[in-house]
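User: quick one, fold this
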Amino acid sequence: MNSEVRQPQLWNISRLQKKAALRVFVPAALFLLAFYGALSSLVETWNGRDDYSHGFLVPLISLYFVWTDRQRLGSITIAPNMAGGILLTLAGTLMNAAGGIGGVVLIQQISILVIIPGLVLLTLGTRFLKALALPLLYLVLMVPVLDPVIKRIQWPFQLLSAAAASNALTLFGIPVFNHAQYIEMPTVTLEVADVCSGVRYLVSIMALTIPLAYFTQRGWRKKGLLFVFAVLIGVFTNILRVFLIGLWSYFGGTVVHGPMHMFQGLFVSVAGMILLFITAMALSRVRFARAHIEKPAPNREECGPAFNANRFNVAYFIAIAMLLGQSGYLYTYASRPVPLKRSLNALPMDIDGWRGVDISRMEVSFSPPGADSELTRIYRNAGGREVTLYIGYYESQRQGKEFIHDSMRKLYEDAGEIKFQTASTGLVSVNKATVKNAGRDTTALFWYDVNGRILSSGYTAKLHTTAGGLLRRRTNGAIVITSAGAANPDDSEAALKDELDFTKKMLPVLQDHLP
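Assistant:
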């Protein structure tokens, strides 16, 4: 009797499986193409900021959340939510376009957090969106959206770390005087700077604690407790770090920066992680008394309405079309350069009692990169007061070539608004910041000029630039900075008064040069 022997077929994928794989691959590829700028900026953030280096792991952990829940997800019937999905997806694509055109990296990054839920809602439906709430919300931790909150609580954490470390040093018999963020000892004075407050790493702690709590703890009480313990451990280990630096400095260590400083931070971080894992293991063994007996959930499917293949196909191709449209727009868009009305070099050397002299760009304390036209000049009045003027004009902007740039962060951080009246432009608002220059305090006034609008707020300037780019394909603008140094603290008010006098006289003249 003849018998047919069939060889086993390895990796035998059915046509249905191939079709499903292709349906996932196409929108994924288009998403990478359309959001390449946003994704690349995220990678730069993760690579360039220690407090966001965990960002590389966040998408992988989010996918792992989905994988572990695949059985429950497989029981949910696909039911596309057309209206909500289109609106959310459209919002994500508009944010990506606006962020790219206006050079607002954060808006581009946030657009990823909007477009992914939008695509899920559009193609899979509301039930899937609810089921994927945890992995989607976890993605927030890869984008620096919490920076404004972190900045607000840095100062209290600086004070806390300095005070607690000072008390610990006192217990070891070391004479310490604590004044605000300073720790004064007989041999050295240490400052707990904002980067050493420890609060910057709270996001990293949250990113680690959420999956740890999810996989090791049962019940929301335990998960919440572990989260609280994680924050306390983060605060404690930072205080320990400051304490160790104090000990090192007091007993002969002369270098508190560089490799030794980094080693101390790494040591304490590892100790904090070990302590967190020990806490998670201990908490997982604790049993809380139940207030009531939980009844088993009824055995029913979450599928809801029956699967509608035609509706899914329509939703799928709408998603494809929107991603294609986004890619096409971004890769064919080009802003139109807007030239100056008159060259900046033609700005008068004499401005109503102020005489100018051109200087090198290197002599200016602050200047963003990539300006198409620049002017750097020192103006002096009859009394000998010097005011340094910098003007940087951008015919068009793009990411990395913009008048609001990260390299100017020190100028932005401590700036406050100041208002004054001029005869030609009316009430004007500019920013005032005090910076160190050549060992002395220098008062800097700066503002943005977007098509004749004098703006003090960087956010408002970005908004005008973005609107101009979307509606008129114009992203031009300028940043203007004046600075005046005081010979001594008693002279600071007089220096600011003279600087304001020059600024009021220079503004109407400058309007003849900027578009």
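User: anything notable?
Assistant: The chain is about 50% helix and 15% strand.
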